[in-house]
């Protein structure tokens, strides 16, 4: 019976090791392994900074990001794409994930964002508000409406009773901004944070109707996270005082409420 018992014990140990491949072997709860974060494109600069700082604070962790439109990321997660954390640019896209049972607990709103009109440096067309976007000859890029920045743009345009036909619909806010940076359009509705990140190339025109289309940004650890320890620690960092400072510097607003 001894060889059989030894084999059973060995198999049990191997199974336990396999199940905790990304968990610390010493039981201290120290994050290690690879952490995969799916995040809205508008979070690129701030999350990249927080990712580098997270790796510095946790030398055993490597953070990888997938930045894209929130709707596309939500679809990928529901279809089984491997990820540990999801940060969305709107609650609607987060709901796609939570309603599919793909979230581990309730999401938390960690930031808000607001639209501006991005124009080439110097604002050559003298655009001052949404009404100027429908002047003859002015070309505009918007995000597609299934993307949070597109839904927000539609809300703002409706609030201003402006009927705008864009020359292009982009799949994320960076795509819309790129059209301005490349000189392919005269203006685009993008997040304030994205315009700030590209301030060497574009100017941001504030407009009052953007207050009707402020987006909440929720974050959550995913139910199938391969590295839940690191995932929870990263979410904590995003919500920390340091995380708030990085987001503030990028132009994000704090979440409403307590």
Describe the structure concisely:
With 258 residues, the chain is α/β, with parallel strands linked by helices. It is built from nine helices and ten strands.
Describe this structure in words.
By secondary structure, this protein is of the alpha/beta class. Helix content is 38%, strand content 21%. The chain is built from nine helices and ten strands. A five-stranded mixed β-sheet has the order 2-1-3-10-4. Strands 7-6-8-5-9 form a five-stranded mixed β-sheet. Helix 2 (44-57) packs antiparallel against helix 9 (241-250) and helix 3 runs parallel beside helix 4 (91-99). The chain is elongated and about 60 Å long. Mean pLDDT is 90; it is low at 1-26.
Q: What fraction strand? A: 15-25%
Number of helices: 9
- Uncertain segments are 1-26
- Biggest sheet architecture: 5 strands, mixed
Cα radius of gyration in angstroms: 22 Å
